[in-house]
Amino acid sequence: TDETDWLQSVRTLRTAPARALSYQTRRFLQFLAKHGTTTVESKSGRIADEGTELKNIRILAELHARPLNIVMTYEATHLTLPDAQLEMTPSLWHTTYLLPKIAGRKQVRFAEIGVGESAFTHGEARLFLTNAIQLGMTPKVRYADATFPEILLLLREMNVPVVDGIRDCSLTEAHALAELGTVAVVTLPMRDGTPRRCIEHLRESGVSFALATGFDNERQPVFNMQAAIGIACREGGLTAAEAITAATINGAYACAEASRTGSIQFGKDADVLLLNVSDYRELVHHFGANLVHMTLRQGEVVFREGELNWPAL
């Protein structure tokens, strides 16, 4: 079950030395660079253990810009450890205890919370996001199993710029997101849900949506954004240009990094890919392959076929 997997992950992270975690994280970042990723969002918060959370954030902060751009999100979880001795509910613990400590480090940009029966109530989520905003963090909402009116109310009340975990979306719901100007993050491949219906409604309504792989070493170990682009075209009905836009500049907007990256413009970071294709439309026809010939981050080569140039710690 998901809870059993979560407990196993927590036990592993709690007991692993920081040096071992740093080494493993560097390996993941190297794999991402080899597949063309230059900016990655990393989520903490699902551990529900103060020492482990702060250890993870410290490791990610040390690896940021060496050389990939790491955007951190603190994601509150409703799950608690069997040996936890909390003197308050999980929502209050995240909101009033750990969140201020995380925000005080000035290293985590987003504060994210899920809404629904398997996550938090509307009131709990509203309190969490209100506190996050007051602490200088950017709010984000995750689709869990809430009804859309619940999600929409929260987005409107808190002026939330990004909604994550979109799996299905009616045309009416997509129009509401478009009116708010919310960026919707669609994770591909989907563990559940139907990409075509969801993506078609988002596109038809004019919603700015970003593609993500939702990389998870145990549940969804997908390094390759090219695969997400291929699925978006094959199963979601997008053109290659639309899918690339969702994976690049829209992804940058979802990470609040569009002023720095996501497109080739004067003044932005030179985060550039060279692919082994003669035309960008060929990307869709090489599903599952890694077509990256070279990855540049801020103008520096971090990956070349057959060679990896990675700075030492």
Gyration radius over CA: 19 Å
| Unreliable stretches covering 5 or more consecutive residues | none
> Mean pLDDT, as a whole number?
90
- Total E-strand runs: 11
Largest sheet: 7 strands, parallel
Strand order of the largest sheet: 1-2-3-4-5-6-7
Determine the number of helices (DSSP H or I, runs of at least 4 residues): 11
- Based on secondary structure, the structural category is alpha/beta
The helical percent reads 40-55%
- What letter string, H or E per element, gives the SSE order? HHEHEHEHEHEHEHEHHHEEEE
Distance between the termini: 37 Å
Tell me the strand percentage band: 15-25%
Shape: globular
Structure overview:
- With 313 residues, the protein is α/β, with parallel strands linked by helices.
- Helices cover 41% and strands 18% of the residues.
- It is built from eleven helices and eleven strands.
- Strands 1-2-3-4-5-6-7 form a seven-stranded parallel beta sheet. A four-stranded antiparallel beta sheet has the order 8-9-10-11, covered by helices on one side.
- The longest helix is centred in the first third of the chain and has 17 residues, at 18-34.
- The radius of gyration is 19 Å and the shape is globular.
- The mean pLDDT is 90.
